[in-house]
Amino acid sequence: xxxxxxxxxxxxxxxxxxxxxxxxxxxxxxxxxxxxxxxxxxxxxxxxxxxxxxxxxxxxxxxxxxxxxxxxxxxxxxxxxxxxxxxxxxxxxxxxxxxxxxxxxxxxxxxxxxxxxxxxxxxxxxxxxxxxxxxxxxxxxxxxxxxxxxxxxxxxxxxxxxxxxxxxxxxxxxxxxxxxxxxxxxxxxxxxxxxxxxxxxxxxxxxxxxxxxxxxxxxxxxxxxx
Amino acid sequence: xxxxxxxxxxxxxxxxxxxxxxxxxxxxxxxxxxxxxxxxxxxxxxxxxxxxxxxxxxxxxxxxxxxxxxxxxxxxxxxxxxxxxxxxxxxxxxxxxxxxxxxxxxxxxxxxxxxxxxxxxxxxxxxxxxxxxxxxxxxxxxxxxxxxxxxxxxxxxxxxxxxxxxxxxxxxxxxxxxxxxxxxxxxxxxxxxxxxxxxxxxxxxxxxxxxxxxxxxxxxxxxxxx
DNA sequence: TGTACATCAGTGAACGCGCGTTCACTGATGTAC
DNA sequence: TGTACATCAGTGAACGCGCGTTCACTGATGTAC
Lengths: 226, 226
Fold this sequence. Notes:
The structure is a homodimer.
Chain A lengths: L3 H10 L3 H5 L3 H17 L10 H8 L3 H7 L3 H23 L6 H18 L1 H9 L12 H13 L7 H23 L3 H19 L3 H11 L6
Helix pairs in contact in A: 3-4, 3-6, 6-7, 6-8, 7-8, 7-9, 7-10, 7-11, 8-10, 9-10, 10-11, 11-12
The structure holds a DNA duplex.
């Protein structure tokens, strides 16, 4: 990857081209402040109802800085949403890191989604508000879901209809579950009950045998036992 | 309902009080034009991105008339969304008019939602864009759903977990199905296949026996047979 | 280590216009006698 | 049926300010020698 030109550049300027292109710490700090302010403000209002003045005041930077980092307000909103999406993706990946069974991985995605909605309702609100359609490829739960469903189908663990509609079905359930948890803010026990019921219904619909679905639903209620 | 005062009023002015309060035909026409313009424009942009000028030009009325009918832009957007919601509610009610079996009624709601998304993708887009949360009581499919699910539970037709999460589960599936149909605009055959698969997965999840779920899914593909 | 220079990001005042909202007036519709 | 009056909705010009965007300048950081 390091070619003659870059070596030359390294010698001359003491920085790799990658570093030369990467933002300075100061720049990173300003950007982070703006994103953090956006996360706060987007909880209560859609982006169009938020003046840039509010963002920069809360971020503690000058108005002009905003346009050093984002082309316009929409660009900014997209960056904030991407931030949350990446956070959720990371949590899903971590939760499923050592899990091989595709059905357990599918269930794990919903468990993480529910836990995120419960632990970070403000961030979850921003994610759900971001107009990224639930059905889209860029949905944070979608990344591995398609592969997991196909793997489970190969193993004969799901009913055949899941081949056509399984991904949509599961994303829809995770999405509506998050919306419900964020909107109603139930107690820890109530939330666990809703998740458990939703897992039982959802997995049964995919064709997972009742006892297995109920097992996974039960396990979801005591994450420590995982 | 007609009291002395109103009779007096009728004699005197030749109009019932209800009529006196109801808007004139001219007023209704103007309002309808504005709503129709809103339906057109809200397909492509959220309300905040639509200038009132655009609305009144398309409606062919003066700008001032807008504020004769709506308090502000948000009020207008709500009225437009309500319009679509009522349309969908009407279709669901009509489709389920003669159907007594609660499971068939539940399935019917999804069939209507899918048909609406397919036949009126523009209106469906407005409905799905309206920030009314899918989980809310005011969801057009929600009206009778809760009652149907409870009835089915009483008859022992659904698994017990549906008592806690059944409404949420079904609304989520209908919602994501509509989003998918509107976004991807599949062919008539593909749409029928997705609906059929989703019905099979969804009903199985509720605890409907496989053969019954597949029956209802099959029937959904030839509405004429209803 | 020190000095001069180059680059990059931050700053906030200023601009200007898009757009929501108001209002005095007009014309249409309805009512009284 | 005709005339005078009252009410109601429509009209569009005018207002004004909120807010996105620009830009000349400053200070900080990095590089060369």
